[in-house]
Amino acid sequence: MNSKQKKNSTQARLYRTLEEVVGCKWSVSVLMAVAAGVNRPGALERHIEGISTKMLSERLRKLSSYGLLDKHTYAEVPPRTEYALTDAGQRLLAIIAQIHALDASLQQQA
């Protein structure tokens, strides 16, 4: 594989990752809820209308693996887990806010 093919392969993988994050119905809702201070899995499940426990667990795992959320598990009985936005997660939410602003301005023009 030459350098051009490697570059195209890397770009394709990055685009697929981005699509998995932003293209998922629940990712933005989870990120926005964590940004609003809802940081425990049970509270997130109650806060995000319609999300299942399985889907929430999957999204939290994926968003953490993408580096958008930090997971902190406390050594308590019973164990407690909390999530927080990383710097990358905060930057992504800023981009999402810009998309919302663009959408609002387009709606006003229509």
Automatic annotation (TrEMBL):
What PROSITE patterns does this protein's entry cite?
Answer: HTH_HXLR (PS51118)
Keywords for this protein: DNA-binding, Transcription, Transcription regulation
For whether the record's keyword set contains Membrane, the answer is no
Entry's SUPFAM superfamilies? Winged helix' DNA-binding domain
Span of domain HTH hxlR-type: 12-110
Spell out the PANTHER family in the cross-references: HTH-TYPE TRANSCRIPTIONAL REGULATOR YODB, TRANSCRIPTIONAL REGULATOR, MARR FAMILY
- Protein name (database record): Winged helix-turn-helix transcriptional regulator
Organism of origin is Balneatrix alpica
Top-level taxonomy: Bacteria, Pseudomonadati, Pseudomonadota, Gammaproteobacteria, Oceanospirillales
